[in-house]
Amino acid sequence: MPNLLVGLDARDDATVYRLNDEQAAVLTVDFFAPLVDDPYSYGAIAAANAMSDIYAMGGEVLLALNVAAFPEDLSTDIVADILRGGADKVFEAGGIIGGGHTMIDKEPKYGLCVLGLIHPQRVFTKNSARPGDALYLSKKLGTGIVTTAAMMDMATPRHLEAAIESMARLNRHPSHIVREVGAHALTDVTGFGLLGHAFEMAEASGVAFRIEAGRVPVLGGALEYAAQGAISGGESRNRHCWQEKTTFQDGISDELNSVLFDPQTSGGLLIAASPEQGRELEQQFSMSHLSLWRIGEVVEGQGVTVVR
Fold it and tell me: Which of 123, 125, 236, 272 suits 37 as a labelling partner, its CA being 20 to 30 A distant?
């Protein structure tokens, strides 16, 4: 199917289908169970997370459908707050919610099916990183650790609030800057953690990634909570999947390793850009008062190496 530009044969963030010479549709779906207690924040985070895949492809959100499951006895006020959180976040993204589907389930689940638009010749994928590129990350890591700590009554309100703010923050404007400046490869860091998504991008591009652990930005409290055992099941699965595919330099702490494997919800963009593009990205992010961290480089070879 020549009009299916990105489909099942590529491990990218969303499906892309060419409509005409000027427009392509970008489609994705994502939903999950609550990871914070506040229903409005849960809805906003789930929506931001679902829309992030559109931004990771370089697209713009147009339309979304609610995907939800709620217990029969769940308060209608709670349901309304979840849906309001999602709707407000879609409105912030410049899109609209046009409907959706809800079913009864014992555990609440919420997310979106999202439709976006993109120019068919301006699609960002994971498979074009080049040796010599710089690697950038646009959000701090550790959301899985902090929210797990909160479930264990270990997290301080300040640390949890910072994690919620990060997860609810859209990748929309960072994606705009990347589209304007250009980059060789782009993805967002979500459930596979930084190392999993880095490995996918490196493998798809036929290169190796060298990540400097000391440059990786970490949410407040994440290292402390990791040391206290606030490790999610997703971190363990990521470690099992990616540990043997990653080379670690001696001297990197167990807590920082946990952060690198930690599954992220609505994480930041991982960008591979040429040195010239990188300098422009740094300038544009700074002018927009947005965070951006250079965390490594692309080199010849295979796999991911983490150095101090």
Answer: 236
DSSP 274: -
Average pLDDT for 246-254? 94
Strand order in the sheet with 109-118: 4-6, 15-18, 24-32, 109-118, 60-70, 96-104
Domains of the chain: total: 2
Q: What is the phi-psi region of residue 221: left when phi exceeds 0, alpha when psi lies from -120 to 50, beta otherwise?
A: left
Per-residue model confidence as pLDDT tens digits over 118-171: 999 999 999 999 999 999 999 999 999 999 999 999 999 999 999 999 999 999
240 and 290 belong to one structural domain:
yes
CA 280 to chain centroid, in Å, comes to 22
Question: Do 146 and 222 touch, CB atoms closer than 8 A?
Answer: yes
Domain boundary among 89, 118, 147: 118
CATH number reported for the structural domain that contains residue 244 in this entry = 3.90.650.10
Please indicate whether residue 7 or residue 203 has the higher confidence score (pLDDT). Answer: 203
Query: If you write DSSP's letter for every residue of 50-106 in order, what string do you get?
Result: HHHHHHHTT-EEEEEEEEEEE-TTS-HHHHHHHHHHHHHHHHHTT-EEEEEEEEE-S
By CB atoms closer than 10 A (0-12, 13-18, 19+), residue 254 is exposed
- The span from the CA of 293 to the CA of 270, in Å, is 10
Last residue of a domain, one of 74, 89, 118: 118
Helix 275-287 with 172-181: angle, nearest 10 deg: 140
Per DSSP, which regions of 125-259 are E strands? 134-137, 185-188, 208-212, 246-248
- State pTM to two decimals: 0.96
Q: Cβ–Cβ contacts within 10 Å for residue 220, how many?
A: 18
3-state secondary structure of 196: helix
Q: Which domain holds residue 285?
A: 134-307
Task: Find tokens 């991911």 and name the residue.
Answer: 304
